[in-house]
Design brief:
The protein is an alpha/beta fold and 350 residues long. It is built from 10 helices and 14 strands. The strands form 4 sheets. A 7-stranded mixed sheet has the order 2-10-9-8-5-3-4. A 3-stranded antiparallel sheet has the order 11-12-14, with helices on one face. A two-stranded parallel ribbon has the order 1-13. Helix 3 packs across helix 4 and helix 7 crosses helix 8. The protein is globular, with a radius of gyration of 21 Å.
Length: 350
């Protein structure tokens, strides 16, 4: 059995792939398959409505939020967020906690003044009151670090890039003003970003923004101001169905904790052969970053892991080392296979 531990694009559920093969790529009486039919037609609109309803149910979405299905990736939102929510001259606060929060802050700085905010260890974050929002990255994919709780930013709306942690656990949406997540971790194929925005924030969107870039216009147009990423949305709807069938977000969280415990357990029981550079309280259950105490053995680890069917374990170029991503679609058997290999490799090379 081969296992894909890539940080993204990541593994999709086997059941979703099987369903997609049966439903999306068969031509109908009109000579078109599902991904070829007009996005304005009733077939795709029914899929879009179903995707929105399933996601709303999974998240227990409050009534004063809108779900947008947008073309592109999370990096587009780095620029679109300040373009939509910052008034002229208004700053935005960014909590810099790792690689992707720094990237988000750098891109946003091209559109608005940035206040780099240093989060306190506990308590309410005293974010400057004139900021349009406070941006966080709850799970840092590259760093392997995660927030232990949703911060309280007081009256300043909280915005979050939830790309790598979205749908891996229940989410208190009401604590956020804006949430976004690109698809290629836990939602579906790359090319789609899901955004969730509180109604009052839609009123901030400037009238002169190009329609495809405007959250307000996309909300008014049912995410169809321009041709949406139809294939990715249809796949996302199937993934939402699959998560529902597995027991919802609480079941995803429980499975995720079991998988993470297997791999972190192999690290912690290795007598220092493997090292996880993130404090235990901040460890990501989704993206596990680790390295060998003898870095010259890293290539042997990657080579032998691939022979054993364990693929895409090389760490991000920013840090090197190793990284295993355990998104929703990774079965527990995959995490067990990795943990067993790690234990055996440490026995042979330690």
């Amino acid at each position: 059995m081969a296992w894909n531990f890539a940080a993204g694009p990541a593994r999709l559920p086997d059941m979703v792939l099987e369903r997609a093969a049966a439903e999306l790529f068969q031509r109908g009486a009109d000579g078109a398959c599902a991904i070829e039919r007009p996005f304005t037609g009733p077939g795709f609109r029914a899929v879009l409505d179903h995707a929105r309803q399933q996601l709303s149910t999974l998240l227990d979405l409050p009534g004063n939020y809108q779900i947008l299905f947008l073309a592109g990736g999370a990096m587009q939102q780095f620029s679109l967020l300040p373009m939509n929510l910052c008034a002229p001259g208004q700053p935005a606060a960014y909590a810099n906690a790792g690689y992707w929060s720094a990237r988000a802050m750098a891109e946003a700085g091209k559109q608005a003044a940035i206040v780099e905010f240093v989060p306190p260890a506990t308590g309410v974050w005293e974010v400057p009151a004139n900021c349009a929002y406070c941006h966080i990255t709850p799970n840092e994919t590259v760093d392997g670090r995660a927030y232990s709780a949703v911060p309280d930013t007081g009256p300043v709306p909280l915005a979050a890039d939830c790309t790598s942690s979205f749908l891996t656990a229940p989410l208190a949406v009401e604590k956020f003003g804006f949430i976004y997540a690109s698809a290629q971790k836990n939602i579906g194929p790359a090319g789609l970003t899901v955004a969730i925005i509180r109604d009052d924030l839609l009123e901030r969107c400037p009238a002169d923004l190009p329609a495809p870039l405007s959250y307000r216009r996309q909300a008014e147009g049912n995410s169809c101001v321009n041709t949406p990423p139809m294939f990715a949305i249809q796949m996302a709807a199937m993934v939402f169905d699959w998560i529902t069938e597995q027991g919802g977000l609480a079941a995803m969280a429980a499975a995720g904790q079991r998988k993470a415990a297997l791999v972190y357990g192999a690290i912690d029981r290795s007598d220092g052969f493997y090292q996880a550079p993130v404090a235990v309280a901040s460890r990501s259950p989704v993206n596990i970053r680790f390295h060998l105490v003898a870095p010259e053995q890293t290539e042997a680890f990657i080579t032998e892991a691939a022979i054993a069917g364990l693929h895409h374990l090389r760490g991000h170029a920013h840090f090197g080392g190793l990284r295993a991503s355990l998104y929703n679609a990774m079965p527990e058997d995959g995490a067990l296979a990795l943990a067993s290999f790690m234990t055996d490799f440490a026995r042979r090379y330690g």
